[in-house]
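pasting for ref
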Amino acid sequence: MSSSYLSDSEFIEEKILPYRILSVIVDNKPGVLFRVTNLFRARNFNIESITVGITEQKDISRMTIAIQSDYKTLDQLVKQLRKLIDIIDVRVLDTGNTVFRELALIKLKASDPTSRMEIAHFSNIFRAKILDISKDSMMVEITGTPDKIDAFKNIVVPYGIIQIARTGISALPRGV
């Protein structure tokens, strides 16, 4: 094991994602999200995505934070996160041994039958769901890895994206 605070198993080279995923277990209390995000802000560090939700225990929440970082900076962030009050555990997830997903809602221009049919076809290929159809638009829900969502988005850009909302990554390590 290196002299770094992170163990070799906690720091995994970039494999699937262009960023690192932190799983932060916290007490489910007011102000915890602010303290965590303020730590990143104070160090002028951008969060690519963050999701927070209650766990199997109602008094504990899981934050999944995606960041672009080198090893040295990541090591410092993990050390500083572990010092915060209300932090129970911080782990850097191995993207090669982690299930991670994101959800996106995409509203597209679709005023003619051909566009609607093509968008429906692409939605079927990507296993996306059509949630709403109006006179001039369609809304699609797609769940998957960020690169799957990006691929779908790139294919439907020519139709015209009216709005898009992405949840950010949720992730859990495989196994027990």
